[in-house]
Amino acid sequence: MQIPELTVLDPVGVRVGGVQVADDPTALVPVLRELLAEHGVAVLPGQVLDDDRFLAFLQGFGELTFTAGETPLAGYPDLNVISNVGRWDSEAPPRSSFHVDTSYVSRPPAYTALRAVTVPEHGGATQFTNQYRAAETLPDDLRRRVEGRTITHVVTGVDLDAVGDGETSAAHPILRRHPVTGRESLYLTTPARCASVSGLDQAASDELVQLLLEHSTRPDNTLDHAWAHEDLVVWDNACVLHRADHTGVVGDRVMHRGMVASYG
């Protein structure tokens, strides 16, 4: 395997260049595990990948998982499509808020990966936050308010019939230790999925979640990844929030997504 060229991104992430995942889809996985635990996001540009090799790459991390209610990619039941095609309406364009993938289960997915299939002419960035830094920079008054508390995360936005008997809610510590590094991370998701904070009434819960989200998503704690053709991006759901920025998008935006269940 070629030695990757690493560029640390601010405030979160690392750019991994000089390698082609397709040459040996699992060879880079041990390196990426370490990079993701430390930096949260790995951007791999110029990856000439088809879905078979993308799937093999993901399987190198371990067992895959799929969010019940999503539509699988034809021929690839472990992958799904993220797309604005047919969804664009100038009166009501697609919206995305900062979140963690499938946080309403007791063991949320460890990693999520997107490969760029079609990149818009303008806009369509994915934004990532550094939740390690969010925890480290938490003001003293907020820290006192969240220490020892949990947030109950609930399912929204998917067909509950598809979920069936699966989990639809789970409580997670607000100050959560990363399963690999043990570092403290500020763990929350989009307010619509933050049903309650332990020990607080609804109004106080909602206010606290909003304050934590505003703190996490400050511009100086957010990376805007502007997609390029053949980009592959992987992130660690335990230490980043993410969202698609649909503002001013011109053209189709199509990504193929896969998720890894655990850290192995």
From TrEMBL:
Keywords: Dioxygenase, Iron, Metal-binding, Oxidoreductase. The keyword Amino-acid biosynthesis does not apply. It holds the Pfam family TauD. InterPro entries: AtsK-like, TauD-like_sf, TauD/TfdA-like. Residues 12-258 form the TauD/TfdA-like domain. Transmembrane segments: none annotated. GO terms for molecular function: dioxygenase activity. Coiled coil: none annotated. The keyword Iron applies. Signal peptide: none annotated. Belongs to the TfdA dioxygenase family. This is TauD/TfdA dioxygenase family protein.
